[in-house]
Amino acid sequence: MPIDPVALTADLVRCPSVTPEEGGALDLIERILSGAGFDCTRVDRNGVPNLFARWGRKGANRTFGFNGHTDVVPVGDAAAWTRDPFGGEIADGWLWGRGATDMKSGVAAFVAAAVDFVQETPPDGAVVLTITGDEEGDAADGTVALLDWMAAQGEAMSVCLVGEPTCPERLGEMMKIGRRGSMTAFFTARGVQGHSAYPHRAKNPVAALARLIDRLSSHDLDQGTEHFDASTLAVTTFDTGNPATNVIPALCRATVNIRFNDAHSGASLTRWLEEEAARVTAETGVEIALSAKISGESFLTPPGELSELVARAVEAETGLRPEPSTSGGTSDARFVRAHCPVVEFGLVGKTMHQVDERVEVAQIEPLKAIYRRILKDYFA
């Protein structure tokens, strides 16, 4: 019997898999895949649950991979939800619950498509599913752990599709062929505390750091590149922790987040930030230290065979030709891209991470059909 992706989505939503809790989601998927002839291995690392599943021979000439996650963000204020966030309730044409959009429906769709495909038309090759419980967290022991394990075991994907939500308004209108890089910079300015009536006897870290932050936020990093929009820098916090109005504090902190295109790297942006901080230190005498965390570099899978394969299948099932895009935040595709060519395609993501997260039921079966067609065309 074909797997019903709507029912599977509901069952997955009922698993309270808030990062890094497994919540029963990967256990459920493993039972389904094992029963369909997939070789399944749990690749847990440092308490993070991960699942690798392969149908077909290891080392096959062609291996199509799917990647996704079953972990979800916290529900927040549960009282603000209209329906139980882990109820998997279907009402008014929607399936409600945390993870319904991001991305248990996508996982359900590609699991159902993969099982139906290999049972109905066993391909000359292999199908691999890598599913993590650590995408919404630090992501250090999720897809990265799976790829590390695969390298050690001689497992490989020829190409991969990540089932993240990619469409702004209608199923079929957008796919991701790359993502911007992401980094966060933490600044700490250390001055000399003093009385506000005698500012010449102090070194004000607030004024110095404000000067630096203004320069950074006023700077145009670039005008965009062929496949990417312009890079952006956003100031996310500026703090002194000073309750007194007549005291110049000794310490001030600020944080900025940068989303950058392929005109930059995390290293080049870190050097720029260090240079700007050193310039303000020289001007003011206030020492400004920088700590940078790079979450991922920008990457691009150039338009070609894989993106065309996905575009044809989407258009055949929806009538829409998906726009190749690099917009949005980060995803685990940033890790997969070092392993093989990767494209992302999934359903409409308007409600992800929101209170009353929900997915339109009418999107889930067509998404399975798209994934099923992609597999059929890939192995044709």
Automatic annotation (TrEMBL):
Domain of life: Bacteria
Co-factor binding details: Binds 2 Zn(2+) or Co(2+) ions per subunit.
Pathway assigned to this chain's UniProt record: Amino-acid biosynthesis; L-lysine biosynthesis via DAP pathway; LL-2,6-diaminopimelate from (S)-tetrahydrodipicolinate (succinylase route): step 3/3
CDD domains, per the entry: M20_DapE_proteobac
Annotated catalysed reactions: N-succinyl-(2S,6S)-2,6-diaminopimelate + H2O = (2S,6S)-2,6-diaminopimelate + succinate
Binding locations of Zn(2+) 2: 102, 136, 353
Enzyme Commission numbers on file: 3.5.1.18
First-tier enzyme category under EC: hydrolase
Cofactor: Zn(2+); Co(2+)
UniProt cross-references to Pfam families, sorted A to Z: M20_dimer, Peptidase_M20
Record-annotated active site: 71, 135 (proton acceptor)
Residues holding Zn(2+) 1: 69, 102, 164
Gene3D superfamilies per the UniProt record, alphabetical: 3.30.70.360, Zn peptidases
Sequence ranges assigned to domain Peptidase M20 dimerisation in this UniProt record: 177-280
Keywords linked to the UniProt accession: Amino-acid biosynthesis, Cobalt, Diaminopimelate biosynthesis, Hydrolase, Lysine biosynthesis, Metal-binding, Zinc
Alphabetized InterPro entries for the sequence: ArgE/DapE_CS, Bact_exopeptidase_dim_dom, DapE_proteobac, Peptidase_M20, Peptidase_M20_dimer, Peptidase_M20A
PANTHER family listed in its UniProt record: ACETYLORNITHINE DEACETYLASE, N-ACETYL-L-CITRULLINE DEACETYLASE
UniProt family annotation: Belongs to the peptidase M20A family. DapE subfamily.
Functional note: Catalyzes the hydrolysis of N-succinyl-L,L-diaminopimelic acid (SDAP), forming succinate and LL-2,6-diaminopimelate (DAP), an intermediate involved in the bacterial biosynthesis of lysine and meso-diaminopimelic acid, an essential component of bacterial cell walls.
Quaternary structure and interacting proteins, as annotated: Homodimer.
Protein name per Swiss-Prot or TrEMBL: Succinyl-diaminopimelate desuccinylase
Organism the protein comes from: Cereibacter johrii
